[in-house]
Amino acid sequence: MAHDGAEMPTTAILSDLAELTAAALPQVEGILADATAAVRALVERDGKVSGAALETHQFAAHALSWLATYAEALRQLNAWAVRLAEADSLGEMERLILQIGFGEYLAQIAGGIPMSQGEIARLSDLGLSWAPDGAAATLIARGNTPAARDRLVQLMRENHGRATFGATGLDDELEMIRDQFRRYAEERVVPNAHDWHLKDELIPMEIISELAELGVFGLTIPEDFGGLGLSKASMVVVSEELSRGYIGVGSLGTRSEIAAELILCGGTTEQKAQWLPKLASGEILPTAVFTEPNTGSDLGSLRTRAVKVGDDWEVTGNKTWITHAARTHVMTLLARTDPATTDYRGLSMFLAEKTPGTDAEPFPTPGMTGGEIEVLGYRGMKEYELGFDGFRVKGENLLGGVPGQGFKQLMQTFESARIQTAARAIGVAQSALEVGMQYAEDRKQFGKSLIAFPRVSGKLAMMAVEIMIARQLTYHSAWQKDHDKRCDLEAGMAKLLGARVAWAAADNALQIHGGNGFALEYRISRILCDARILNIFEGAAEIQAQVIARRLLD
After folding, report:
1. pTM of structure
2. Which of 120, 328, 348, 467 could be cross-linked to 285 through a Cys-Cys bond (beta carbons 3.0 to 4.6 Å apart)?
3. Start and end of every Acyl-CoA dehydrogenase/oxidase C-terminal domain (predicted)?
C-alpha cells in the first residue's frame, strides 16, 4: 500500500503521550454516553428497561457492555500511568504499554470490538458513527505501530524473568506477597502441574497443606476469626501468581473465599465462630453447590428442595458442575425451602456437612451420590454431578438461621468471586505469555529465533499490553471492594475482559508453538484448555455482558 509521503516517526514513543491519552478519554466518554442513550431508547418502555426488549436487542446491549468495559479499561490504564509518573516510575516499557494499549483499544472502538471470535461489536450496531479526530486520531495512527511493538518486545527480552512486564503500580507489601507466592509456584507448582493435568489427578493434599500454612484459605478472613485479615487486593495478587503456576492451585482458595464471604455476610454469630476459623486454617475444605442440570446461569429457577424434618432439613435433588466435591468437608448448598415459589424467592443457603471421600469411595455420606464429569482442562480438583435423596442437614446449619435468604446471600459474594476470577485469568494469561515467549526465543527457523519475526513478536507485545490492561481493571475493582464501594459493575468488566485476554494469550502462544503446541507434552496445550473455562464459569461471557448492560441502563 502506498504511503502518503509523510515520514513515519523515528522514535517508538510519542513525545506528548500523557497529554494525548488524557485528551482521548473525554472523547471515549462522549461516545459511551451516546451509545448508552441509543440502547436505552431501544429497550425502555414507559421509563423502565423492558426485559423482553433487552433480549430482542441483546446484541446492541452487549455491544454497549463491551464499549463501557473498554472505556473503563482505558480510564484505569491512564490512571495507572499517572500514578507511576507521580512516583517517578513510568519507564519506557510502561509508556509503550500505555501507548499501544490506547492506540489499539481506540482503534477497536472505532472499527469494532471483538466480543468473541465471530462477534464484533460495532458502533453502527447502535446507530452511531465516529470519525476520530484530535488525540484519538493521533493515538490510533501512531500508537500501536510495528516500531512500538518491536521496542516493547526488546525490553521484555531484557527483563525476561521479572514477575510482570511493566510495573504494576501496587505497593511494596503487595509486591512482597507476589514474590513469595511466585517463588512458591515456581518451586512447587510449575514443575508438577502438567503431570497432574495429563494424569487427570487431584492436586496432592501435600500442596493443600502447604497453601494452608501460607495462609491462602484465610487470606481475607478477619483476624478475629483466625484469618490474616488482608485486603482483596492481596487476594488478587495471590490468585494471580498461583494461577500462573496452575489454575487448579489458584482456584483452591476460591472455594474458601466464597464460603467465607457467605458466612461473613449472612451467617449468625455462632456460625461465624464455628466455621470461619476452620476455613481459615484449612482444617475444613468447602465446595460451592449451586448449579443444577437444567438451570445453568438461571439460578433462580433451581429445583433442589429442602424440607424441614423436625429441627433439621432433608435435601432432595440434583446438582452439577460441582468443583472439588469429593474430598471436601462442607458444602455451601443452595436449595428451595418454599415449594410455593418458582423464582429466586424461597431459596435458602445451607452449610451442609459431609464426610470427605476417598478414591475408593468418593461420596460416603448417606443420602448423597456423585459421579465425575471428565473435562478438557481446569482439572486438579475435578468436576462432579451430585444427587441428593433425603440428605440430612442440621437445622443450625441454615445460613443466617432464616429461610428464604439464599439468593440474596449468594448475590453478596458475586463481586469478590468475579474479582478473583479476573485475577485467575491474569495468571493464566501471564503463564501463556511466558511460555510462548520462551518458546519463541528457543525455537530457530530460517536461521534465527522465532521472536525475531514481527508476526511473532507482535503477538507477544499485545499479550503484555492486554495483560496489563486487564490487571489494572482488576486491581481497581479490588481497590473499590477494599474501600467499601459498590463494584459489581467494575468486577464484571474485569472478569469479562480478563477471560477474553487469557483465551487470546493462550491461543496466540499455542500458535507460536506451531505443531508442537498441538502436542500434549507441551505445557501450552494445558494452558489453552485451562484458559477456555474462564469465559464460562462465574457467569458466562454472555451473561456477564447482560448483567453489565442492565446495570448501565438502570
Report:
1. 0.94
2. 328
3. 404-553
What interhelical angle do 190-198 and 523-532 show, nearest 10? Answer: 70
Q: Say how many CA atoms lie within 13 Å of 332 toward its Cβ.
A: 29
Q: Distance (Å, rounded) from C-alpha 153 to C-alpha 456? A: 10
Beta bridge pairs of residue 287: 331
Catalytic residues: 538
* Residue 291 contacts residue 303 (beta carbons within 8 Å): no
Per-residue H/E/C for 204-267: CHHHHHHHHHCCHHHCCCCHHHCCCCCCHHHHHHHHHHHHHHCHHHHHHHHHHHHHHHHHHHHC
Residue whose cell numbers read 468475579:
418
Q: Which of 95, 93, 97, 88 is nearest to 18 (CA)?
A: 95
Residue whose grid cell is 490487571 = 471
Phi/psi-derived region of residue 226, left when phi > 0, alpha when psi is between -120 and 50, beta in every other case:
left
The CA distance from 325 to 312, in Å, is 22
Question: What does the alpha-carbon distance between residue 313 and residue 355 come to, in Å, rounded to a whole number?
Answer: 17
- How many other C-beta atoms can be found within 10 angstroms of the C-beta atom of residue 116? 12
Say how many residues make up the chain: 554
Report, as an integer, the average pLDDT of 186-198: 97
156 backbone dihedrals φ, ψ, rounded to 5°:
-60, -40
352-364 pLDDT, tens digit each: 999 999 989 999 9
346 DSSP 8-state letter: T
Q: Which helix (H) or strand (E) holds 550?
A: helix 541-553
Q: What is the pLDDT of residues 444-499, one digit of tens each?
A: 999 999 999 999 999 999 999 999 999 999 999 999 999 999 999 999 999 999 99
CA distance 421 to 67: 21
Give the pLDDT of residue 9.
44
Cell, residue 368:
448423597
Of 417, 293, 411, the residue nearest 349 (C-alpha):
411
Question: Which residue shows C-alpha cell 449451586?
Answer: 290
